[in-house]
Design a protein that fits this description.
single chain; EC 1.6.5.9; 578 residues; five-stranded parallel sheet; flavoprotein; FAD/NAD-bd_sf; FAD/NAD-binding_dom; alpha/beta
Amino acid sequence: MASTSRALGRLSAPSMGVARLQTQAVSRLLSSAPRRALISESRQVAVTQQIRCAHTETTPALPEPPKERRRFRTLRWLWKAPLLASLAGIAYVGWGVYEERNPGPQVEPDPSKKTLVVLGTGWGSVSLLKKLDTEHYNVIVISPRNYFLFTPLLPSCTTGLIEHRSIMEPIRTILRHTKANVKFYEAEASSVDPERKVVRVLDTSEIRGDVIETEIPYDMLVVGVGAENATFGIPGVREHTCFLKEIGDAQRIRKKIMDCVETAAFKGQSQEEIDRLLHMVVVGGGPTGVEFAGELQDFFEEDIKKLIPDIADRFRVTLIEALPNVLPSFSKQLIEYTESTFKEEKIDIMTKTMVKKVTEKTVEAEINKPDGTREKITLPYGLLVWATGNAVRPVVKDLMDRIPAQKDSRRGLAVNEYLVVQGTRDIWAVGDCAVAGYAPTAQVAAQEGNFLAGLFNNMARTEVLEQRVRELSGSLNLEPGNAADISKEIEEHERQLRRIKDIKPFHYSHQGSLAYIGSEKAVADVSWFNGNFASGGSLTFLFWRSAYLSMCFSTRNRLLVINDWVKSKLFGRDVSRE
């Protein structure tokens, strides 16, 4: 143990010396720490910079992220286009609704201005009223119908595809949007006296007051009463057929269709009677008759077959036309397409067939065969719709008898190139009651109304300026001090008179013809540059709907028609009788 202690003592002596040396070195380092800290910090910064420079020189640069391709940016904006279009459409519709519900103030009539009387609320009259500057006239509208009827969609009302009020626009709503106040009388014009310049009107409403008949004087008269259905003197037509010209006709047809269906489904009905009741005959191969036949076939195929399958296969539609083909105003290509489509839909077409007599349950007709012979046939029917021919209304016939120049006219009031009734100076005629050398269509009547509006506006502006020039010329010598100013104003008015364009004679511009042929197909014969563009099929059906929708007179009508189309597509047509 003693030897071990001595060994440890010998070893610890040098170790303690080393420790003292280390303690001294540490104290010297601590005394010089601040100075060396600054040096080491500066060296550290320099080294860091050198390392960064070396790293930059030796390490390649990272590639830039690829730029987004342009087509992807286009696609990114493309999905927003429908959203923006929808918002724009909603804003447009909202603005249209706001304008219709909030018309501006109107100017009160001025007794010193001329009185313009308009008879009728059809295509010609309403087109005139919408474009006429009513501030220049005291306008009075007379019609037994206090609404405008969009007749191209009338066949759709017969089967419940469209409700009848969706294609009716109140005439007072239209007149409320004119610049000046327009008077409207719901009455029927019974006669016109061109010598005394008065119109005799009769109140035909169910509720009558103390005064039911009166006279209305006029300075200018526009006759736009249209035409009534022509029976061509065939016995039984007026008593047993349904016409298709007014909204009441469509409602009557709709009720009779369901009457035939429900009667055919009655227990114990014979097979012959079921075949008769479910045989629908349409007379007239024009657009109205063709569209009604197509709508009727759709109604049975899409709705009646699902609800009453027991008798649905007995349903038949027959179209009778006196001419060699249907849709005579269309191209030959579209006529053939229509006839082939009707054959697929099992609609019978009987051309070169003349109706001779109509009874309560049968129609007697005569067919002209290719060999020149004639064959008489008898067709039993449940419903017979007469969709052909126009006849002169009594008020037009009375006016023609009062004007000697109209003695040779048979189809209506003969007019000149400015639509002035021949033999008069202050009576104009538009629409089906006027004979201007054009077909009696809504398109012709609308253009005639627009023409008269431009003519009357031009006449009013010219008269105002000429009157002002006469007044200034008369005061030129009475006020010599203002002669220079008056002469300058006269020159300005004369310059305005020269700028007013002379209205050229009326010329009808045919925009095309459209017709629905059933099975969601339509035909269109549209004017294209110097020729015509003919098409038919499902895409044409979409064009037919969009064209008629754009032709509606108000935003209200457009929204109601769209709602009816969607409702019928989702839930089917309404088959209730009333």
